[in-house]
Amino acid sequence: MGALKDLARSFSRLTQEEVDLFCLEYGIDKQFNPTAPACDASIDKPIPGFIALYCRHFEWSNLRYPFSFFVLNLLEYYRVSFGQVQPKGMARVLHFEVLCRALGYDPSLLLFRRFFRLAKNGDWFTFENTKVDTCLVSSMVTTLGSWKNTFFWVSESIIPFKMVWRHPDAVLNDPEPSESELNDAFLSAIRGCPSRVRPFPEHLLVLLGVSNIWAKVDRDPVLMRNGLVMSALDFIKSDDTSDVVFEDAPTVPDENVVVRTSEQRFGGSGYVSVANVKGFTKSNVPKPSTRRLSRRLLKAAPQSTSTEPVDLSDDIEASEDQAEVEAEKEKELVVHGKKVRGKKGVATPVQGSSSRDAGGLDPEGVYVPAWQVKNDDTFKDAAVCEDALSHLAFSVVLIAHKTLGNSSSQLLSYLPNLVLMPSTMLLLVLST
């Protein structure tokens, strides 16, 4: 078994004293009950009501608490947990945020997806460069060191949503956004900043609002080179910063950097879920491969009457990080959340619209479910169950209406049988 295929056999060696000291250093409050795992507890088996955090995410990947809204949005969108992301993948996420803030912009999930994609990394996940735009990572520090055996539990209340443990065979990515969907000035600026991913000094992270670990209340961090103030962007783009001096200067009135940037981080309120982020709407339907933008998308709105097949497969490749440890022997395809080898799945698009209420339905039309359920969802999630049932119940009424007409007595007797039909059977009946 390869070095990255041992998640279930990787256990934390941290003692409770070490966890307490680590949380004190990185400002993780005791109210979240940081707890050392039992010696036989793997990271995918946290205490009920808790989630896992890797120490290396903080020490090496530049993650800080309170977590930024951007990091939380990203985890919510990809439906992946902190404990599933390999440190180099998390480092790319924070590097993107740091770079955006150094350019004077708030990090955008939409823009992030232009440059990075989720990828499998053995039993873990990572984020790697896409192939559609400039590579923002010019190089990366390779000395990651030991990381799989240093994790701990914290209360799930440390984040504002229910964190999902992503299924390893779930479809990975939506298509990358096109240039027309992005801010032209932002896109142009970040393209000119390929830079080295590495652990950054606390001075820089505080200056950019990623960290609030700063004890000098009336002073702000300053970067100095050759007696002159150095910008955060110049520091990030410089491979050699050994001559940079970290100093501090009096805070400008009403411009305290820690206070001013606190609105970028989740401190118990102010979080906006992915579905409501301005300029970004989470997809409600299965998407095709991220590397084939010309494929048509399924939409819950009127479309042409074409019955052209839609390829819903998504190629899963070994990540760039995993290549450092072991080479994948073959590629795998994920089709509707199932693992298949050497074969692509094809589905027929569904036409019509589900936007009308029951009274305005066309008996001859084809029903399109406009729900939030995606390929990688499971019915262990209460919200998924509620959404599916609410739409399936509507499907049942439509089938009965088509099959039995307006006879209420026949309708009532037939409904129990329809309710028990699997969702796939319901769709087949609706398409006839």
- The number of distinct β-strands equals 14
The residue ranges in which pLDDT falls below 50 over 5 or more consecutive positions are: 281-317, 325-363, 418-432
Relative strand content: 5-15%
* Structure class: alpha+beta
Helix content: 25-40%
Helix segment count?
12
Order of helices and strands: HEHHHHEEEEHEHEEHEHEEEEEHHH
How many angstroms does the end-to-end distance come to?
A: 48 Å
Tell me the number of structural domains: 2
List keywords for this structure.
432 residues, alpha+beta, 2 domains, three-stranded antiparallel beta sheet, 12 helices, 14 strands, globular
Walk me through the structure.
Residues 311-321 have a biased composition (Acidic residues). Residues 61-118 form the Transposase (putative) gypsy type domain. Residues 283-321 are annotated as: Disordered. It comes from Helianthus annuus. This is Transposase (putative) gypsy type domain-containing protein. With 432 residues, this protein is of the alpha+beta class. It folds into two domains: 7-276, no CATH class; 352-432, no CATH class. The chain has helices at 16-25, 55-59, 69-78, 87-102, 109-115, 184-191, 202-207, 232-237, 257-260, 382-404, 408-419, 423-430, and strands spanning 50-54, 116-121, 124-129, 137-140, 151-155, 195-197, 219-225, 228-229, 245-250, 310-311, 314-316, 332-335, 338-340, 346-347. The strands form six sheets. It has a three-stranded antiparallel β-sheet. A three-stranded antiparallel β-sheet has the order 11-12-13, with no helix packed on it. Helix 10 packs antiparallel against helix 11 and helix 10 packs parallel to helix 12 (423-430). The longest helix has 23 residues, at 382-404. Mean pLDDT is 76; it is low at 281-317, 325-363 and 418-432.
